[in-house]
Amino acid sequence: IGVSELIMSTAIQGVLFCLLGAQPLLVIGFSGPLLVFEEAFFSVSGHRLTWWGRVWIGLWLVLLALLMVALEGSFLVRFVSRFTQEIFAFLISLIFIYETFYKLVKVGRAPVGTGPPRGQPNTALLSLVLMAGTFFIAFFLRKFKNSRFFPGRVRRVIGDFGVPIAILVMVLVDYCIEDTYTQKLSVPSGFSVTAPEKRGWVINPLGEKSAFPVWMMVASLLPAILVFILIFMETQITTLIISKKERMLQKGSGFHLDLLLIVAMGGICALFGLPWLAAATVRSVTHANALTVMSKAVAPGDKPKIQEVKEQRVTGLLVALLVGLSLVIGDLLRQIPLAVLFGIFLYMGVTSLNGIQFYERLHLLLMPPKHHPDVTYVKKVRTLRMHLFTALQLLCLAVLWAVMSTAASLAFPFILILTVPLRMVVLTRIFTEREMKYLDANEAEPVFDEREGVDEYNEMPMPV
């Protein structure tokens, strides 16, 4: 699965969801957890079985979604507390950061073999510069959004387009340095698949050169359950965040309809080798905030209040169409160095740590109590008890990372979901109800105004 497949899947599913979905404020797209699963599935199944296996996983996904909707199982999302969400988000952020430097080290690794030299001078150094430049420009412009320079509207525009600006600047830097080679993004011409020599657009579920084994068709149910866990958690938690009463939405959300629609589209897209998608948390919250109209005339010291939210389908539809049209500019996309994308991965990993209480409590482990911040979980819970809660989350994270580093990496969604009964059964015996109320409470509020150091990433402990 390459760039063209991802773009087409995002465009097609985005258009259909905007037309048929119950909550048009949701933005569906590819996410870090699904990327991790795709990589794990490819490493386990191998190239020959990946495409047919994905088709049968997609078919099982549709059946699982129908069963979940028929039993009204969306209520299960209430048991996925902040404890599990933060472990999930921290793991994905850690993977993004680790993969960035792992791939950068591979660029600078000496060629193996006794043949003629194949290395390119200064490639590793330029890749490091492009990666670091992309990250720091995007990170600075995100901080600039909540600074005190320029009018608020100008700051918002610059901050919202910080990542595209960073990519454009570093692509120009790479273009101006002509005597140093950097690997570029691979984008096929037109509407071709990424690897036309290996497959076409339509995948035969029964196999092509040889029949796909029946036992594998049945065995595909297991990875389908794992994918469904990821899509269910991301989609339903994102819908809950969008539907908070503070947003004062006039139209309700359809938890069952949206889940069934997203999973069904993913199952059908698997027949064409397109990736599965889910509700993208950060993009959905940004979309909802952009459509929120705030009151302008407020008394000194008062916060602006919500007047209305433009609940419509036009903006999401236009975004999906523009994503699809980006296939036309394949020549421009092929000018983007992979090192620039490494910088974006690093940016995604670092910024996703914002709003994760677990990450903040890790800092407190190395900080004297007198320097602890004045927040509820610090004031209401004894320091040692707070550190014990952090240590248990850290232990769960270490177990998940160990699973991800082995051949059993495909099972990480199942290990993740085990943290739900762990929190409900074990932690309630270790901590009092009052302590759990403060340590595992969802205190995040919708962010509508410009507060220094605060944006959409602070609103949710969910991975990008």
Supply the key terms:
464 residues; mainly alpha; two-stranded antiparallel sheet; membrane; anion exchange; transmembrane; HCO3_transpt-like_TM_dom
In short:
Its main location: membrane. This protein is mainly α and 464 residues long. It has helices spanning 3-20, 32-45, 47-70, 82-108, 123-144, 152-160, 162-176, 214-219, 221-242, 255-269, 281-290, 314-325, 330-333, 338-351, 357-364, 376-379, 383-404, 412-417, 419-430, 433-439, and strands at 28-29, 278-279, 292-294, 306-309.
Write the layout of secondary structure elements.
Layout: H1 3-20, E1 28-29, H2 32-45, H3 47-70, H4 82-108, H5 123-144, H6 152-160, H7 162-176, H8 214-219, H9 221-242, H10 255-269, E2 278-279, H11 281-290, E3 292-294, E4 306-309, H12 314-325, H13 330-333, H14 338-351, H15 357-364, H16 376-379, H17 383-404, H18 412-417, H19 419-430, H20 433-439
Antiparallel strand pairs: 1-2, 3-4
